[in-house]
Amino acid sequence: LALALALPSVALENGLARTPPMGWMSWERFRCNVDCQADPRNCISEQLFFEMADRLAEDGWRELGYEYINIDDCWSAKQRDAAGQLVPDPKRFPSGIKALADYVHARGLKLGIYGDLGIFTCGGYPGTMLEHVKQDAQTFAAWGVDMLKLDGCYSSAEEQAKGYPEMARALNATGRPIVYSCSWPAYQGGLPPKVNYTILAEICNLWRNYDDIQDSWDSVLSIIDWFFTNQDVLQPAAGPGHWNDPDMLIIGNFGLSYEQSRSQMALWTVMAAPLLMSADLRTISPGAKEILQNRLMIQINQDPLGIQGRRIVKEKSHIEVFLRPLSQAASALVFFSRRTDMPFRYTTSLAKLHFPEDAVYEVQDVYIGKIIGTLKTADNFSVIINPSGVVMWHLRPMTLLVQ
């Protein structure tokens, strides 16, 4: 980290990711499936990305802001070419990455790619050693890539402290706007003193802080626990152009119930998290699609102030309350139940949640979409929250009450 401290001039002033990036990513759902003979429909190939780009463009995702199609690990050939350049696997990506980028751009979308700052990627493909940083940045730019996720497998803390800032400079030097997603903090435990979030925000547009998400509710809960237990460190680090990334949305896969899917969407939104789906958009259920395409939810996630929300209440009854301040003095409130028995009636007031005295708010239920009434700060109210579910509100201040 001493190396990074000596680099005050690396500020990532690329003007990108002013709101959390939104899109689709291959990893959680399709992993490193490279057997295109046995499983042509689900293997990591250009065909998969062509088809997902079509879905984003044609099924209403793009208009809502889901614009990135992100290739994760296992896209490249097992060796660099004679010039030392990364090349896509010729069997699985016969048209090349530039052609894929052109296809994606023609649909009004953007292409993301994956690299790893080490000898190998996590999946065992060629990594980006320090001597390849500039070359790989130029390769990605020449291909028309719009986002780079740089992982950290097979690299040392020293190599990471040198390589992550170096890639930021190399990407900026290409002249192409490329959103930069770093896995650096996740490899250093995610917390100070090993991680300096002030420096990180000058180097990366978003960063993975913690473990990879798996297709299970336990995994989602472990991420929620870690992020909100450490919110005093993490929350101030986020803002326009630099975001904490709790990892992909697994809504529409196999591991989450309907209630749990609604909870992941609401809590990622309150966290000002990137909304990167990793489900099969060709077969996604109407219920999952409805959660992911909730307009008010996305509007809250993309709020221009870019303030990450916090957990403000943790009750003995296993009910938790989260608050995210929004522009124009609005707020998002999430009431979350960790209970596993039955719907729970939770009673509180905005005063107890530290809202300003003598104010009146218009309350809109984010999932129902309806305005459910107005509330004075002092009024008691109750919400009924399903097990492992949420109730989410959007609060808009009306006129202040005259004393």
Task: Give the key terms.
disordered N terminus; disulfide bond; Immunoglobulin-like; 2 domains; alpha/beta; 16 strands; globular; glycosidase; glycoprotein; 403 residues; eight-stranded parallel β-sheet; Glyco_hydro_27; TIM Barrel
Please, could you describe this protein's structure?
- The protein is of the alpha/beta class and 403 residues long.
- It folds into two domains: 22-302, Aldolase class I (TIM Barrel), CATH 3.20.20.70; 310-397, Sandwich (Immunoglobulin-like).
- Helices cover 29% and strands 21% of the residues.
- The strands form three sheets. The chain has an eight-stranded parallel beta sheet. It has a six-stranded antiparallel beta sheet with strand order 9-10-11-16-13-14, with helices on one face. The protein has a two-stranded antiparallel sheet with strand order 12-15.
- α6 packs across α7.
- The chain is globular.
- Residues 306-389 form the Alpha galactosidase A C-terminal domain.
In short:
29% of the residues lie in helices and 21% in strands.
Note the topology.
Blueprint: H1 2-5, E1 22-25, H2 27-30, H3 46-58, H4 61-64, E2 68-70, H5 97-106, E3 110-116, H6 133-143, E4 147-151, H7 157-173, E5 179-182, H8 184-187, H9 197-203, E6 206-208, H10 217-229, H11 231-234, E7 243-245, H12 258-270, E8 275-277, H13 286-292, H14 295-301, E9 310-314, E10 319-325, E11 331-337, E12 344-349, E13 360-365, E14 371-376, E15 380-385, E16 390-397
Parallel strand pairs: 1-2, 1-8, 2-3, 3-4, 4-5, 5-6, 6-7
Antiparallel strand pairs: 9-10, 10-11, 11-16, 12-15, 13-14, 13-16
Helix pairs in contact: 3-5, 6-7, 12-13, 12-14
